[in-house]
């Protein structure tokens, strides 16, 4: 049973800005209503400018969150685009290795990079939700599907299974105070969709936001991303990917089909698609390029590798929570992914 949640800002310092405090206050109240104590790490609310200039402060907060025995779970505030800059402060002298222990760590988007950092050290993590994006949902309550997974995680310390949501939602464009209490527009969801391959397969899941994975290999945002990620061997070796299930989902930037193809091709050059047991692909936000992405997946990921599409994880709402580092058994016929912590 998780009692205290530690909130860290490992990418953007957004939760420190005045214009989101109505969301932060709502999120804190929700966590407390769930019976949780809330602890913001020292620099988590320092704001956008400070945290952009001080990656070492973000790294310090992550290590402190692991070392603080009163914190039962680490919750990322939000994503961003430069958490790779924490690598020297966490790995140059094995700083993170000395600090970590097994406790739930939850985040998505740019936090993909942090998941890979923790994977290097054998830490099992959880992908799919964050404080600002999910706990601080402006509707009168958290989205029910998202809430059910968050509740299971804080009550049991794990996730037992994942099924499709019955609905999906249009993304918000207004996050101001006047949007408090407003409902989202929902649509019927069609469930997990098998694009090709065996409908039943298994393996440990690893991966995350496709743009974040792409940035490991291409300096699309910053001039030193590839160099830094390569120095600290962030992307797992092909032998580490053997038998794993790759999770991919796209961001709120809604990459064009051409970019989506390029990102997949870049991953393909690593040889990863020759050793995986399957691929899970998240629903695109607002179902933008839904059919185009499907076709590109079929063209780029050749062979009979199973691909399951329209998973409720990542940037499209609502969001499930996916455990990394535990055996997953996918059964598309039964529309379920089961997680086995004891195999």
Automatic annotation (TrEMBL):
Task: Cite the InterPro entries for this sequence.
Answer: Carboxypeptidase_A_C_sf, Class_I_gatase-like, LdcA_N, Peptidase_S66_N, Peptidase_S66C, S66_fam
The molecular function terms in GO held by this entry are:
carboxypeptidase activity
Does the keyword field hold Glycosyltransferase?
no
For this protein, the record's Pfam families field holds: Peptidase_S66 (PF02016), Peptidase_S66C (PF17676)
Give a yes or no for keyword Protease in this entry.
yes
User: Residue limits of the LD-carboxypeptidase C-terminal domain?
Assistant: 202-330
Q: Which UniProt keywords apply?
A: Carboxypeptidase, Hydrolase, Protease
The residue ranges of the LD-carboxypeptidase N-terminal domain are 5-128
The protein's matches in PANTHER family, at most eight in alphabetical order, are given as: LD-CARBOXYPEPTIDASE C-TERMINAL DOMAIN-CONTAINING PROTEIN, MURAMOYLTETRAPEPTIDE CARBOXYPEPTIDASE
Entry similarity comment = Belongs to the peptidase S66 family.
Could you identify this protein by its name? Carboxypeptidase
């Amino acid at each position: 049973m998780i009692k205290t949640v530690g909130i860290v800002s490992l990418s953007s310092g957004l939760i420190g800005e005045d214009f989101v405090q109505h969301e932060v206050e709502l999120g804190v109240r929700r966590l407390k209503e769930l019976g949780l104590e809330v602890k913001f790490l020292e620099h988590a609310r320092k704001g956008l400018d400070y945290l952009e200039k001080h990656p070492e402060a973000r790294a310090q907060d992550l290590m402190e969150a692991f070392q603080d025995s009163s914190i039962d779970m680490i919750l990322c505030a939000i994503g961003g685009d430069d958490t790779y800059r924490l690598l020297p402060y966490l790995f140059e002298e094995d700083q993170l290795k000395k600090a970590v222990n097994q406790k739930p760590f939850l985040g998505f988007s740019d936090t993909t990079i942090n998941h890979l950092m923790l994977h290097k050290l054998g830490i099992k993590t959880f992908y799919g939700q964050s404080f600002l994006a999910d706990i601080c949902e402006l509707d009168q309550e958290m989205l029910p599907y998202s809430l059910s997974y968050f509740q299971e995680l804080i009550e049991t310390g794990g996730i037992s299974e994942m099924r499709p949501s019955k609905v999906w939602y249009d993304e918000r464009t207004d996050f101001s105070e006047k949007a408090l209490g407003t409902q989202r527009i929902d649509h019927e969801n069609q469930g997990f969709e098998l694009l090709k391959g065996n409908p039943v397969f298994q393996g440990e899941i690893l991966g995350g936001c496709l743009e974040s994975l792409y940035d490991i290999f291409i300096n699309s945002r910053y001039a030193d991303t590839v160099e830094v990620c390569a120095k600290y061997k962030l992307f797992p070796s092909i032998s580490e990917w053997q038998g794993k299930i790759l999770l991919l989902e796209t961001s709120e930037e809604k990459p064009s089909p051409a970019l989506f193809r390029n990102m997949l091709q870049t991953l393909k050059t690593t040889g990863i698609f020759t050793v995986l047991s399957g691929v899970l692909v998240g629903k695109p936000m607002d179902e933008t390029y839904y059919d185009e992405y499907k076709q590109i997946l079929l063209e780029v990921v050749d062979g009979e590798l199973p691909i399951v599409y329209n998973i409720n994880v990542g940037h499209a709402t609502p969001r499930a929570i996916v455990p990394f580092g535990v055996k997953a058994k996918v059964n598309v016929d039964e529309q379920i992914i089961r997680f086995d912590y004891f195999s």
